[in-house]
Amino acid sequence: MKTLHLYVVRHGKTYFNRYNKLQGWGNSPLVASGIQDAHQAGQKLSQVHFKAAYCSDTTRAMDTAKIILEENKNSREISLITDAKFREEFYGSFEGTNMDAAWTSAGAPVGLRTYSEIVDKYDVDKTKDLLKEADPWHDAENSEEFWQRVLAGFKRILTNPVLDDGDNVLLISHGNSLISLADRFGEGKIAVHERPANGSISQMELSKDGLTILTYNNEPVKD
Protein backbone atom coordinates (compact mmCIF):
# COMPACT_ATOMS: atom_id res chain seq x y z
CA MET A 1 0.00 0.00 0.00
CA LYS A 2 1.40 3.39 -1.03
CA THR A 3 2.01 5.88 1.76
CA LEU A 4 3.06 9.44 0.95
CA HIS A 5 4.78 11.86 3.31
CA LEU A 6 3.00 15.22 3.21
CA TYR A 7 4.54 18.47 4.40
CA VAL A 8 1.48 20.71 4.80
CA VAL A 9 2.31 24.41 5.20
CA ARG A 10 -0.11 27.17 6.01
CA HIS A 11 0.36 30.09 3.61
CA GLY A 12 2.13 33.24 4.80
CA LYS A 13 0.26 36.02 6.57
CA THR A 14 -1.99 38.18 4.40
CA TYR A 15 -3.66 41.54 4.79
CA PHE A 16 -6.99 39.89 5.64
CA ASN A 17 -5.21 37.80 8.29
CA ARG A 18 -3.88 41.04 9.74
CA TYR A 19 -7.35 42.61 9.72
CA ASN A 20 -9.02 39.52 11.30
CA LYS A 21 -11.27 38.98 8.28
CA LEU A 22 -12.65 35.69 6.98
CA GLN A 23 -10.68 34.75 3.88
CA GLY A 24 -11.83 31.66 2.08
CA TRP A 25 -12.18 31.77 -1.69
CA GLY A 26 -11.59 35.51 -1.47
CA ASN A 27 -7.97 36.55 -1.47
CA SER A 28 -5.54 39.21 -0.32
CA PRO A 29 -1.79 39.51 -0.86
CA LEU A 30 0.93 38.41 1.53
CA VAL A 31 2.18 41.16 3.81
CA ALA A 32 5.93 41.61 4.31
CA SER A 33 5.93 39.32 7.32
CA GLY A 34 3.94 36.77 5.28
CA ILE A 35 6.68 36.67 2.68
CA GLN A 36 9.10 36.08 5.53
CA ASP A 37 6.84 33.29 6.84
CA ALA A 38 7.25 31.53 3.49
CA HIS A 39 11.01 32.01 3.42
CA GLN A 40 11.36 30.62 6.93
CA ALA A 41 9.28 27.57 6.05
CA GLY A 42 11.33 27.14 2.89
CA GLN A 43 14.57 27.27 4.84
CA LYS A 44 13.31 24.60 7.24
CA LEU A 45 12.35 22.39 4.30
CA SER A 46 15.30 23.25 2.07
CA GLN A 47 16.85 19.78 2.28
CA VAL A 48 13.65 17.78 1.75
CA HIS A 49 13.45 16.11 -1.66
CA PHE A 50 9.91 16.74 -2.85
CA LYS A 51 8.55 14.61 -5.66
CA ALA A 52 5.49 16.86 -6.15
CA ALA A 53 4.06 20.14 -4.88
CA TYR A 54 0.41 21.20 -4.67
CA CYS A 55 -1.51 24.28 -3.58
CA SER A 56 -4.87 25.96 -4.05
CA ASP A 57 -5.38 28.41 -6.92
CA THR A 58 -5.30 31.45 -4.61
CA THR A 59 -2.35 33.79 -4.97
CA ARG A 60 -1.52 33.63 -1.26
CA ALA A 61 -1.00 29.87 -1.56
CA MET A 62 0.80 30.02 -4.90
CA ASP A 63 3.15 32.79 -3.76
CA THR A 64 3.97 30.85 -0.58
CA ALA A 65 4.62 27.67 -2.56
CA LYS A 66 6.90 29.39 -5.06
CA ILE A 67 9.04 30.91 -2.29
CA ILE A 68 9.36 27.54 -0.53
CA LEU A 69 10.36 25.78 -3.75
CA GLU A 70 12.88 28.52 -4.54
CA GLU A 71 14.49 27.86 -1.14
CA ASN A 72 14.61 24.11 -1.78
CA LYS A 73 17.90 22.62 -2.95
CA ASN A 74 16.56 19.22 -3.99
CA SER A 75 13.34 19.85 -5.89
CA ARG A 76 14.34 22.06 -8.80
CA GLU A 77 12.79 19.79 -11.39
CA ILE A 78 9.18 19.71 -10.12
CA SER A 79 6.35 21.96 -11.27
CA LEU A 80 3.80 23.41 -8.88
CA ILE A 81 0.30 21.92 -9.33
CA THR A 82 -2.58 24.27 -8.49
CA ASP A 83 -6.05 22.91 -7.80
CA ALA A 84 -9.23 24.60 -6.56
CA LYS A 85 -9.92 21.47 -4.48
CA PHE A 86 -7.34 22.72 -1.98
CA ARG A 87 -8.98 26.11 -1.47
CA GLU A 88 -9.92 27.25 2.01
CA GLU A 89 -13.51 26.79 3.18
CA PHE A 90 -15.90 29.03 1.22
CA TYR A 91 -17.58 31.50 3.57
CA GLY A 92 -20.23 32.76 1.12
CA SER A 93 -21.48 36.25 1.87
CA PHE A 94 -19.32 36.31 5.00
CA GLU A 95 -16.15 36.50 2.88
CA GLY A 96 -14.17 39.54 4.05
CA THR A 97 -16.30 39.92 7.20
CA ASN A 98 -14.74 40.40 10.62
CA MET A 99 -14.21 36.88 11.91
CA ASP A 100 -15.65 37.48 15.37
CA ALA A 101 -18.81 39.07 13.96
CA ALA A 102 -19.28 36.22 11.47
CA TRP A 103 -19.05 33.48 14.08
CA THR A 104 -21.40 35.39 16.38
CA SER A 105 -23.94 35.42 13.55
CA ALA A 106 -23.41 31.71 12.93
CA GLY A 107 -23.68 30.71 16.58
CA ALA A 108 -26.61 32.94 17.53
CA PRO A 109 -29.36 30.42 16.60
CA VAL A 110 -27.88 27.89 19.05
CA GLY A 111 -27.08 30.44 21.76
CA LEU A 112 -23.32 30.61 21.14
CA ARG A 113 -21.15 33.63 20.37
CA THR A 114 -17.67 32.44 19.37
CA TYR A 115 -15.99 29.90 17.12
CA SER A 116 -14.48 28.19 20.17
CA GLU A 117 -17.87 27.86 21.84
CA ILE A 118 -19.31 26.17 18.74
CA VAL A 119 -16.35 23.77 18.55
CA ASP A 120 -16.59 22.96 22.27
CA LYS A 121 -20.29 22.16 22.15
CA TYR A 122 -20.31 20.47 18.73
CA ASP A 123 -17.26 20.15 16.46
CA VAL A 124 -15.50 21.94 13.60
CA ASP A 125 -17.89 20.57 10.98
CA LYS A 126 -20.78 22.19 12.85
CA THR A 127 -19.16 25.62 12.39
CA LYS A 128 -19.47 25.14 8.64
CA ASP A 129 -23.07 23.99 8.81
CA LEU A 130 -24.11 26.89 11.05
CA LEU A 131 -22.34 29.46 8.86
CA LYS A 132 -24.12 28.19 5.76
CA GLU A 133 -27.45 28.46 7.58
CA ALA A 134 -26.62 32.01 8.69
CA ASP A 135 -25.56 33.09 5.18
CA PRO A 136 -28.62 34.84 3.65
CA TRP A 137 -27.71 33.33 0.24
CA HIS A 138 -26.66 29.96 1.72
CA ASP A 139 -23.63 30.04 -0.55
CA ALA A 140 -21.16 29.21 2.23
CA GLU A 141 -19.93 25.62 2.18
CA ASN A 142 -21.37 23.23 4.71
CA SER A 143 -19.31 20.32 6.02
CA GLU A 144 -20.49 17.87 3.36
CA GLU A 145 -19.63 20.23 0.52
CA PHE A 146 -16.25 21.07 2.03
CA TRP A 147 -15.18 17.46 2.55
CA GLN A 148 -16.39 16.29 -0.84
CA ARG A 149 -14.10 18.86 -2.44
CA VAL A 150 -11.08 18.52 -0.18
CA LEU A 151 -11.01 14.72 -0.05
CA ALA A 152 -11.13 14.69 -3.85
CA GLY A 153 -7.97 16.79 -3.74
CA PHE A 154 -6.19 14.29 -1.52
CA LYS A 155 -7.32 11.48 -3.82
CA ARG A 156 -5.70 13.34 -6.71
CA ILE A 157 -2.41 13.39 -4.81
CA LEU A 158 -2.60 9.73 -3.84
CA THR A 159 -3.42 8.57 -7.37
CA ASN A 160 -0.72 10.66 -9.05
CA PRO A 161 1.17 7.99 -11.06
CA VAL A 162 4.44 9.87 -10.63
CA LEU A 163 4.36 9.34 -6.87
CA ASP A 164 5.69 6.15 -5.30
CA ASP A 165 5.54 4.75 -1.78
CA GLY A 166 7.54 6.91 0.61
CA ASP A 167 7.74 10.00 -1.61
CA ASN A 168 7.62 13.49 -0.10
CA VAL A 169 4.91 15.93 -1.20
CA LEU A 170 4.58 19.64 -0.44
CA LEU A 171 1.05 20.97 0.07
CA ILE A 172 0.30 24.62 0.79
CA SER A 173 -2.93 24.83 2.78
CA HIS A 174 -5.07 27.25 4.77
CA GLY A 175 -5.89 27.90 8.41
CA ASN A 176 -9.40 26.51 8.66
CA SER A 177 -8.57 23.67 6.31
CA LEU A 178 -5.78 22.60 8.65
CA ILE A 179 -8.09 22.86 11.65
CA SER A 180 -10.62 20.72 9.81
CA LEU A 181 -7.99 18.08 9.04
CA ALA A 182 -6.87 18.09 12.67
CA ASP A 183 -10.43 17.66 13.90
CA ARG A 184 -11.23 14.83 11.48
CA PHE A 185 -7.94 12.92 11.53
CA GLY A 186 -6.25 14.03 14.75
CA GLU A 187 -7.91 11.39 16.94
CA GLY A 188 -8.81 14.03 19.53
CA LYS A 189 -5.15 14.79 20.25
CA ILE A 190 -5.01 18.25 18.66
CA ALA A 191 -6.50 21.48 20.02
CA VAL A 192 -8.62 23.02 17.27
CA HIS A 193 -9.76 26.35 18.73
CA GLU A 194 -7.15 28.52 17.01
CA ARG A 195 -5.69 28.59 13.54
CA PRO A 196 -2.14 27.28 13.16
CA ALA A 197 0.52 29.93 12.60
CA ASN A 198 1.12 31.34 9.15
CA GLY A 199 4.05 29.46 7.64
CA SER A 200 3.71 26.60 10.13
CA ILE A 201 4.56 23.07 9.00
CA SER A 202 2.47 19.98 9.72
CA GLN A 203 3.67 16.52 8.71
CA MET A 204 1.12 13.91 7.67
CA GLU A 205 1.05 10.47 6.06
CA LEU A 206 -1.45 9.88 3.26
CA SER A 207 -2.63 6.42 2.23
CA LYS A 208 -5.86 4.84 0.99
CA ASP A 209 -6.83 4.53 4.67
CA GLY A 210 -6.79 8.32 5.11
CA LEU A 211 -4.47 10.75 6.87
CA THR A 212 -2.27 10.26 9.89
CA ILE A 213 -1.07 13.52 11.46
CA LEU A 214 2.44 13.27 12.92
CA THR A 215 3.14 16.94 13.65
CA TYR A 216 0.80 19.92 13.67
CA ASN A 217 1.60 23.63 13.76
CA ASN A 218 5.35 22.84 14.14
CA GLU A 219 4.74 20.56 17.13
CA PRO A 220 4.65 16.75 17.48
CA VAL A 221 1.22 15.23 18.01
CA LYS A 222 1.35 13.68 21.48
CA ASP A 223 -0.57 10.62 22.61
Describe the structure using short key phrases.
8 helices, 17% strand, alpha/beta, Rossmann fold, 223 residues, two-stranded antiparallel ribbon, 6-stranded mixed β-sheet
Question: Oligomerization state of this entry?
Answer: single chain
Shape: globular
Radius of gyration: 17 Å
Count of DSSP helices?
8
CATH class: Alpha Beta
Question: CATH homologous superfamily?
Answer: Phosphoglycerate mutase-like
Structural class designation: alpha/beta
Q: What about the largest sheet?
A: 6 strands, mixed
Describe the structure.
By secondary structure, the chain is an alpha/beta fold. It has one domain: 3-Layer(aba) Sandwich (Rossmann fold). It has eight helices and eight strands; from the N terminus they run βααβαβααααβαββββ. β7 and β8 form a beta hairpin. The protein is globular, with a radius of gyration of 17 Å. 42% of the residues are buried.
